[in-house]
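ok so heres the complex, two chains, lmk if somethin looks off
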Amino acid sequence: MTSVRTAPHRHNPMALRIRAMWQSDLAWAFRRSPVAMVSFVVVVLLVSGALLAPLIAPHDPFDPATLNLMNGFTAPGAPNAFTGESFWLGTDDQGRDVFSTILYGMRISLLVGFAAVLLGMAIGVTLGLIAGYRGGWTETIIMRVADVQLTFPAILVAMLIFGIAKGFTPVEYRDQIAIWVLILAIGLSDWVQFARVVRGATLVETKKEYVQAAQLIGRSGTAIMIRHILPNVLSPVLVIATISLALAIIAEATLSFLGVGAPPTQPSLGTLIRIGQGFLFSGEWWILFFPACTLLALALSVNLLGDWLRDALNPKLR
Amino acid sequence: MLNYIIRRIFQSVVVLLIVGLVAFSMFRFVGDPIDNMLGQERTQADIERLRAQLGLDQPFPVQYWRFLENAVQGNFGVSYRQGRPVAEIIAERAPATLELAAVSGLFAIVLGIGLGVFTAIRRDGWASSVIMTGSLIGVSLPTFLIGILLIYVFSVELDLLPSFGRGDVVDVGGWSTGLLTASGLKALVLPAITLGLYQMTLIMRLVRAEMLEVLRQDYINFARARGLSERVVNFRHALKNTLVPVITVTGLQLGSIIAFAIITETVFQWPGVGLLFINAIQFVDIPVMAAYLMLISVMFVGINLLVDLLYVAIDPRLRGEGNAT
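and the predicted structre for the whole thing:
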């Protein structure tokens, strides 16, 4: 890659930073990959749709005052037989606008996805750093636990944690905290990948001279791990985080679909699909179809972005 | 070699003991078992009697040991929700799950190997690229959406196959089977495809990659030069040599088939152990959850151990002295 150096604008650091970002290797790889660009646009559209839901959504699906039961089962685009109102993607059995429920459902799906990955990442990176840097029996215990957990499919672990946490909460609070339990369950089920990769990378970094130099000048182990090693092991973490996000979104949808996730009062995309499945036989296909498509588009484009990021950050493939 | 086997078995036992501890702690600490088992009308004497009867007045390690003893004998306590012994409920449900898992496993192996060989031999044909693209979509679709899609096409639109339940079952010596009736077989088709599709694509892609690797080898060229027919070269020489990794992966996937049966059984309301587990989570039926956890761990750990040992048995290169890991 040729870099064209322009005179630095001393008084405009923001423009300078944007220019540097545009000329970075990663941006270059991005501009060369149509798949990455399309996926990125889809993700940005869906995420901003979810963030701006209260502004864009034609109806507030959680406000019973705006709902009209007469509007129930309106087909997409067609005016309702009783009220004459028409809805872009139709309505469900309670007259809720499907487009609005999808926008609000995505908020839950994305919240759970992002928070679960952040939790899994925090646990995994911390334990991976400690295991790789300290070694010895600390490492043995952490990695054995990781091995045992890896024997079981993540979704099973998440279900189990969900079930146990549900047992600890009094019945009247179960629906309110279901979202947080979901985050906890999915987060705890996917820390292993992070821990394994970070431990591997830390083992390599620890042998390098800069770490020995830091040890010689007497920095504490914690400081070396956080200030010196962590920044150097972050790029594989970023890749795993992106792929984990797609998996977490699907895991959340699966749990909610099975009825052990987001409650109907706070429906995520999975809950919406669960609701829609009930109307498959009576011909109201749109209640199921649009949430399912949204889930697919979201999971697929995040996944493709993760794949692209893995290739772009791996210097061996360039 | 012997050293390795003993160490592997020891590790498996430790894992099972830890899982047992988790299952036991669930039973002991999530909610109060006494509360769950006795109704509203109870006296202090009832509570004391049940506490002594369940051994809850004993120290923790004693209770844990007793739990393990009972679990080994197949005694997992009484379901909070149904009021019947958990072992009985699971035994009743197990045939449904095992039949579903066996049929999907068979579907995955037969079709996976078949399509894998086909796409490797005709690697540039249009049929191969259609199959490969299709498999990519199959991998990225979540299981429950595949199930719904199949229900929509084959039950709602075409009205060919049932969308829920097991159909008619016949009782053969205490084992209720759906494999002997027409409606049972019809009911099995969609769930089996849903459950086996992911494993099928996985096996197919693996067989294809391994076949392409083997077909480049010198002995394949030599076999061709000797004038052997394509069929003999492809199946007797090439396929045979791809089977070691395929057996390993298939073995490990067997465990996930049983775990993912939870999702498939819920979509199709299949009356198996997975549906039982989901209902147990919904109603916080701890004994059922604990029993399911124990059973599935025994299965997983057992399969892992078996695959590892099989691997050593099949591949002589792994039988190194002492340093096998």
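quick notes: Chain A has a mean pLDDT of 82. thats all i got rn
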